[in-house]
Design brief:
heterodimer; A: 113 residues; mainly beta; six-stranded mixed beta sheet; four-stranded antiparallel beta sheet; B: mainly beta; seven-stranded mixed beta sheet; 11 strands
């Protein structure tokens, strides 16, 4: 069984400051981990994915995430927030060989001008 | 390239009515999924189809049925709608393999009165 916990339901940052969205996971096997973003009234779009090739994963729009097995974490970061980053972000885990993805409950990111 | 197309975008039903949500993808993907999204709950898997001709239950299948009509199309049916099925429904597809990213449709907002 697998699960994912997003530690903050809402994060607010000022434009130009760093973004940190936190995610912890639980999985019986080596997991695949993803971050998806959902802009208002839109479908979800993949930001980045971890598949065991490298612990630091770079994604689109300047986002990156670091897989830390010892901490069972996969936090999403960005050095400098932009207004267009305001959206809801989902951390997702997929068990080895499984078709089922488990989504976190989401973190809503607000960016203050 | 349309990607994943869902119809309708909006629907209002009365309790007990039935309806079918349609989904089609043009990316030659093997796997297709139906999710529902409720506030504060993230996305929860209803049913998925790993390949043409197969369907499997996800986390919340009760009250739903699915049909994988062919490789392109995957429909979701509510036989007797209930207010608890008020939600936003997303169809998604992915290529072969556990690491493939999901491509999402733009969603169907369903209200059951």
């Amino acid at each position: 069984a697998q699960s994912v916990t997003q530690l903050d339901s809402h994060v607010s940052v000022s434009e130009g400051t760093p973004v940190l969205l936190r995610c912890n996971y639980s999985s019986s096997y080596s997991p695949s981990l993803f971050w998806y973003v959902q802009h208002p009234n839109k479908g979800l779009q993949l930001l980045l994915k971890y598949t065991s090739a490298a612990t630091l994963v770079k994604g689109i729009n300047g986002f990156e995430a670091e897989f830390k097995k010892s901490e069972t974490s996969f936090h999403l970061t960005k050095p400098s927030a932009h207004m267009s980053d305001a959206a809801e972000y989902f951390c997702v885990v997929r068990g080895a060989g499984s078709y089922q993805l488990t989504f976190g409950k989401g973190t809503k990111l607000s960016v203050i001008p | 390239n349309a990607g994943v197309t869902q119809t309708p975008k909006f629907q209002v039903l009365k309790t007990g009515q039935s309806m079918t949500l349609q989904c089609a993808q043009d990316m030659n993907h093997n796997s297709m999924y139906w999710y529902r999204q409720d506030p504060g709950m993230g996305l929860r898997l209803i049913y998925y189809s790993a390949s043409e001709g197969t369907t499997d239950k996800g986390e919340v299948p009760n009250g739903y049925n699915v049909s994988r009509l062919n490789k392109r199309e995957f429909s979701l049916r509510l036989e007797s709608a209930a207010p608890s099925q008020t939600s936003v429904y997303f169809c998604a597809s992915s290529g072969q393999g556990a690491y493939e990213k999901l491509f999402f449709g733009s969603g169907t907002q369903l209200s059951v009165l």
